[in-house]
Structure formats: C-alpha cells, structure tokens
Design a protein that fits this description.
mainly alpha; 0% strand
Length: 91
C-alpha cells in the first residue's frame, strides 16, 4: 500500500468534507435521534460504499479515457455547476 497516497487522499477528503452537507446531515440526524453511534455507523457505511463505487468506477473509466480528458471533463463540470449555482443565487 502506498501510505503517502493514502495520507494525501485522507487529507484532501477530510478538508473537503468539513462543513459539507453530509456532515451537516449527520449532525442533524444525531441531534434528532439522540443516538450518535447509530448515526455514525450508518453514515460511515454509506460513505464507504459511495467511496468504493467512486474508486472502482474511476479505475474502470481510467482504462478507457485518458486522464487529461477526465480532468477537463471534471473541471468543466465544476465550472458549469458553479456558474449554475451563482446564477440561481443572483436571480
């Protein structure tokens, strides 16, 4: 296992998820249910499955599409989403 890659991935995902809607949803569910460990287990399993799908599909797609085009596609998608959100909030 490449521990440097694992640590980099952890750091990026950890920082990206701080204050994210997933964290806020977990916070709300735990406060409402008054059962933080149950919410933790459910949310952790959901995130593991979503991450497994992302890693598997990313590896699969990388076999057919060069990384350069994946970066361009992902960057374009983020720009479109950003402009769309900005447009909706300014109207």
């Amino acid at each position: 296992m490449d521990w440097k890659l694992a640590a980099t991935t952890f750091g990026i995902i950890f920082l990206a998820e701080l204050g994210d809607k997933t964290q806020l949803a977990v916070f709300t569910l735990a406060a409402q249910a008054k059962s933080p460990w149950t919410v933790f287990v459910g949310a952790s399993l959901a995130l593991v499955v979503v991450t497994l799908l992302g890693a598997y599909l990313g590896g699969f797609i990388a076999n057919y599409i060069p990384p350069k085009f994946l970066h361009i596609g992902a960057g374009s998608l983020f720009i479109v989403l950003g402009v769309s959100l900005l447009w909706e909030n300014l109207r």
